[in-house]
Amino acid sequence: MNAFALVNVRVFDGWRLTEPTTVVVENGLIASGAARGERIDARGAVLLPGLIDSHVHVRDARSRDALARHGVTTGLDMASWPPELIASLRGATGSADLRSAGLPAIGPDGLHARMLVKDPEAVVTDARQAEGWVSDRIAEGADYVKIVMEEPGGGGLEADVAKAIVDAAHARGRRVVAHAASAGAYTMALDSGADVITHCPIGAPADPADVTRMRTGGRVAVPTLVMMKAVARFIGAGGAGGAGGAGASDGFAGSIATVAALHAAGVPVLAGTDANAEPGAPFQVEHGASLHQELRLLVEAGLSPAEALRAATSLPARHFSLADRGSIEPGRRADLLLVDGDPLADIAATGHVLRVWCAGVQHVPRLNPPPAPDPVTGPPGARHT
C-alpha cells in the first residue's frame, strides 16, 4: 500500500487556508483516519489541489512532464492528433493526467485550414456531416469536442455547420469547446450553442450583450490571457497588419476588460494558457510555468486570489466532469501541489513549488526526458489551434 502523511501543512479548502493540519494519502487518494506510512513535515507550507490547465496542446512526454513539474497535474488538451498521440501520453505514473478534444472541426478556408491544421478530416463543410464527424471523434477517444470559429466570412465553419456539430456532440453526451479569438467569432461561438468559449477578443472588449448571453446560457470562459497578451504584443509591434505603437497595451486592455466583465456577470472563468511547443505555432507558450502567469493575469482582471485558484482547481473539475479531483477531500485523487508562501496574500506564491504529487506519486523531474514516440506525420507545427 502506497501511503504517506503530510503533517503541519496549511490546506487551501477552496476559500481560505486552514490552520496547520495533517493530510493522509493512501493508494493515490486522499484518505481519512490515522496517518500511515511516511510522515512528511511540511513546516507550515501551503498545500493546493493539483492545478488544472484548461487549454493546452501536448505533443510529447516533455510537454506533459513540464506541466507536472510546475504543479499542473491535469492538462485539458484542445487539439492533438492522430488519436494514437494522446493515447500514448495518457496514464503516466507520477506525471500530468490528460484529457483531449482530439481533432478539431474547422472551416475550409480560414486561418486554421490555411496555416495550422493540415488534416483534411478536420474540415467540415456541410451540416449533414456533423453526426458522423462527432461519432468518429468519440470513437477515437475524444473527451469533448472542439470547434474553431473565425470571423464571419473568413472561411471558417459556417454557422449551421457549427450548430449541427454542437447538437450532435450534446446528443452523445459531450461538451463542446469553441475557439473564438475575435469579437465576431465570439458571437458566432455563442450562436452555435457551445458550452465553453476559449480565448477572448483583443481590442474592443466583448459585446455586453454577449457577456449577458454567456451568463444566461450557462456558458464557461477560458480566456487564455497569456496567449492573448502575446498576440496583442505582436499586433502592437506591427504584425498581422498592426501599426505598432500602443496597439499592444490597448489590445490587451480589451482582453482584460472582457474577463473583468465576464467575472462581474457571474460567468465561470477557468484558467487556461494555450501552452504549446509547436515550431509552426504563432506563439509558443511554456507548459506549466505559464499557468502561474495566467493566475496573475486573472487577478489583474479582477478575480481575487482565491477565485483565481478555484479557476485552476475546482471550477475546471466541475465543468469538465472531473469529479475525482479539484479539491483536497477524502476520496479525491491525491493530485497535490505544495508551495512556499501564501497564494491568498500573493498569487505569485503558486510558482514557488516545493513538491508535486500526481495521484499520490511524487513527480520527480528528469533533466533530459526522452521524447515520446511521435506517430504524427507532416510538419510538427501543423496541429496547433
Automatic annotation (TrEMBL):
The keyword Hydrolase applies. Residues 367-378 have a biased composition (Pro residues). Residues 46-360 form the Amidohydrolase-related domain. This is Imidazolonepropionase-like amidohydrolase. GO terms for molecular function: hydrolase activity, acting on carbon-nitrogen (but not peptide) bonds. Keywords: Hydrolase. Residues 365-385 are annotated as: Disordered.
